[in-house]
Amino acid sequence: MTGGLAEAGWEALRTEARAAMARAYAPYSGFPVGAAALVDDGRTVSGCNVENASFGLGLCAECGLVSQLQATGGGRLTHFVCVDGRGEPLVPCGRCRQLLYEFGGPELVLETPAGLLTLAEMLPQAFGPDHLAK
Ligand SMILES: O=c1ccn([C@H]2C[C@H](O)[C@@H](CO)O2)c(=O)[nH]1
Questions:
Q1: What ipTM was reported for this prediction?
Q2: pLDDT, position 1
Q3: From ligand 1's centre to the CA of 44, what distance in Å?
Q4: Which residues are Zn(2+)-binding (predicted)?
Q5: Domain spanning 7-125, CATH class
Q6: Which residues are annotated as a binding site for Zn(2+)?
Q7: Residue 3: what pLDDT?
Q8: Model pLDDT, residue 66
Q9: pLDDT at 44
Q10: Which of 16, 51, 62, 111 is catalytic?
Q11: CB 46 within 8 Å of CB 19
């Protein structure tokens, strides 16, 4: 299962995520993270974690990614990977799954340490924009 994306596409996404990870600002946790995603118009967006001396204000890599998505024209996320400091795929934290749900929905495909999974599998019964419309 490649989520409709060839292995070369996933490798390119991992490379983008690793490049973002190398620019992380994580002096407090020592745990740099990079994230990259494909957009439905072919763009790639990425982000890195940015921590703060006021620890609770730290921004996850996915925060930067969705900010770049919106700032560069919006669109829907289709494929996503985040990596740790070794460049290996990492699971997005719970809050970030919710951030991704807003812009990718249940069909977003994520590369994880357990293989390719949809966001519906990573965040079952998600709360989302549809609930507000009811
Ligand atoms: O999905 C995640 C999980 C963690 N982190 C960051 C937050 C913090 O800076 C560091 C350690 O938790 O990793 C992310 O950027 N994304």
A1: 0.99
A2: 53
A3: 20
A4: 60, 93, 96
A5: alpha beta
A6: 60, 93, 96
A7: 78
A8: 98
A9: 98
A10: 62
A11: yes
When computed from its CA atoms, the radius of gyration of the chain, rounded to whole angstroms, is 14
Tell me the H-state helices in 4-118. Answer: 7-21, 61-71, 94-104
Residue 71, classed as helix, strand or coil, is helix
Q: Is the CB of 29 under 6 A from ligand 1?
A: yes
Measured from the CB, is residue 2 less than 6 Å from ligand 1? no
Domain boundaries, the chain: 7-125
What pLDDT does residue 134 have? 82
- Ranges of residues in the chain with a pLDDT under 70 are 1
Structure tokens at 32: 């740099």
Contacts with 129 (C-beta within 8 Å, 6 or more apart), sequence order: 102
Bridge-partner residues for 35, per DSSP?
47, 82
Q: Which residue, judged by its Cα, is nearest atom 3 of ligand 1?
A: 93
Decide whether any atom of ligand 1 lies within 6 Å of the 63 Cβ.
Answer: no
Residue whose tokens read 């799954």: 97
Determine the Cα–Cα distance for residues 68 and 49; give it in Å rounded to an integer.
13
* Block residue for tokens 């340490």: 113
